User: Fold these one by one.
Assistant:
Number 1:
Amino acid sequence: MSSVVKKRFVSNLIKSKRPDFILIQETKLMQLDNYQINRLWYESEVQAAVAEAEGMSGGLVTLWNAQTFKAEEVITSRRYILVRGVFVGNFPRIIVNVYTLNETSVRRLL
């Protein structure tokens, strides 16, 4: 997501499909500020959790529509973002965005 072309593609996809939740992996971003988050999303009420990249690998972003999902807990780590909350209509959910290197030894640990 560090390139302008990728950001535009993701933003257009989000705006056309209007999801309640989106999980992005391999962002390769060291930081993501509120301005960048709001440019990606289609509504003004977006919430986000970010796990920064390490060098040129990794990086996670989880975005959700704050009007349809109320987050009660967000846990971030280098390799995952866990969001626990309730969708409108009282549907409790736990959603996890996971990233790991594509190495057999690392996958076995998971």
Number 2:
Amino acid sequence: MIAIVARGPDGVTPGRRLPPGPPGGRYQGVCPALLEANFLERYRQGLALHEAEAVLAETAREIERAERRLYDEDTDAEQRQRLHQELRRLYQDYRLRQRELLRLERRLGDAAWASP
């Protein structure tokens, strides 16, 4: 469940919790003007968090693929050397993306406590 809102004839208003929209859905401009600015700020933060999670997951999949190739019996010594270099880069990239995700999560958590 997300955002404490209710749908009515004038768009969304404070009220009950609604389930999130479909994955990949975009905001359709249904909030009343008084609520829209706050909603859009949280929406953008949530979108940034979602994108950071997706990038981290993709990096993890790249690591898994490289590790499988590294231990494949058909991989020769030269390919293994390149894979070791690629994995070092991917591990570093994963750590950076993980820190960014944690920073975004903290910022969203802090903002939730600060919201009225």
Number 3:
Amino acid sequence: MDLLAPAPISCFLAFLLAVAFLLFQPTGLVQWLQKKNYQYEVTFALYMLTPTEKFIFNSVLFLTLSMFTIAVTLYLPNHLVYAMRRGYYYFAGTEAGNGTLLYAAQEKVAEVVGTAYRAGVQTAAAAQEQLGRP
């Protein structure tokens, strides 16, 4: 088989033309990403920095967000358990044991949320009735 035959070259040229077309006529996703990058650079005034300064700024931002994400992943679950215990204490007035804590807190929170939901539904129904909507 001859590698320089006209058919493979024309296929390769068609592929190159398709890639060039996609690069110069970006899809919706690419346009959206370009717009977000533009908004990011304009919001933080990165467009006026040199490439080295941009790299340093982006590196510091990435490291800060990474450390924040790791901290949230490691410490948020313990904090939520502590907050649930405090929340149960504020609702019930007594501390619950570890086995009954989740169930008791669930009951109290469900009761409060249910009351708030019913009040919201009644308010919405009254507002619709006042506006004359069915």
Number 4:
Amino acid sequence: MYATTLTRDPFATYRQIDAVGRTTTDGPGLVQLLYKELVAALRAAAWASDNRQYATKSDRVTRATAILFALEAGLDFERGGAVSETLARLYAGARRTIVDASVGQDGSIFRTTADTLDEIAQAWRTASAA
């Protein structure tokens, strides 16, 4: 993964390595970081969409979609049961919404999705602090 990115954008590779270095080895720390990056990517996609910055929008949509796949891949369906199933449906729905919105120019869809996911991120932060 890093080698492919390095040939395209060394600064992006540094940011990826930096993000990995900032995570803790525990699951909640990684999940919180992924949500933070996801919400930031969606808000950047909204700005890019509103300002006709199509390359930036595409990059941020790709990042948000990849993060949603990573969050879904990290679900423990055996221990999480119905919560994991609900989150999987939420992530899949968010991906569909984001991909559908990526062909348009309405940044509000990205903002609304970011706001919804930020509420879930807040719940993760609260649960982790307890």
